[in-house]
Amino acid sequence: MATLGFQVLRQGPGEAAVGGVVGEGHLNLHGTAHGGFLYALADAAFALASNSRGPAVALSCRMDYFRPVPLGARVEAVAEEVHLSRRTATYRVEVRALGKLVALFTGTVFRLGGEDVPAGTGNPTQGEA
Q1: Where is the Thioesterase domain (predicted)?
Q2: What is the pLDDT of residues 68-103, one digit of tens each?
Q3: CA 77, CA 117: separation in Å to the nearest integer?
């Protein structure tokens, strides 16, 4: 994260936000943010959010790119837990720049500890549907 200039903006149980600025070294051949830079930003938020529940490793990830991001733009990736179980968890990461959604990342992790989790997203309390 430090090498790419990312900063942790927020972190809590099952969530995280990471920010960065598109620099000269982050550009693709079109002069906009390289997909790898945007992916790394989303992946950093995903890692912080998923490991906030205990050690976890990625099982699968997907990223869809919607808009180009110009040099100098501030980019933020916000990870949110959408499913949490004893063995797996899934996260949605919105990547935004210039007030717009520029990419969407989804990732699922395998939870290494396998501990029970508190009631929350994807883990309703007894009696809930």
Answers
A1: 30-99
A2: 999 999 999 999 999 999 999 999 999 999 999 999
A3: 25
3-class DSSP state of 119 = coil
CATH code, domain carrying 72: 3.10.129.10
What 8-state DSSP symbol labels residue 14? T
Q: How many CB atoms lie within 10 A of CB 126?
A: 5
- Specify if 65 maps to a domain: yes
Tell me the residue type at 117.
Answer: V
- HSE-up (13 A, CA, CB side) for residue 107: 29
- Number of domains comprising the chain: 1
Phi, psi at 26, each rounded to 5°: -105, 10
Looking at the domain assignment, is residue 59 inside a domain?
A: yes
- Rounded to the nearest integer, the mean pLDDT of the chain is 91
Q: Return the bridge partners of 63, or none.
A: 105
Q: Is the pTM of this model over 0.85?
A: yes
49 domain-assigned: yes
Q: Contact at 8 Å (CB) between 105 and 60?
A: no
End-to-end Cα spacing for the chain:
39
For residue 122, being part of any structural domain is answered with: no
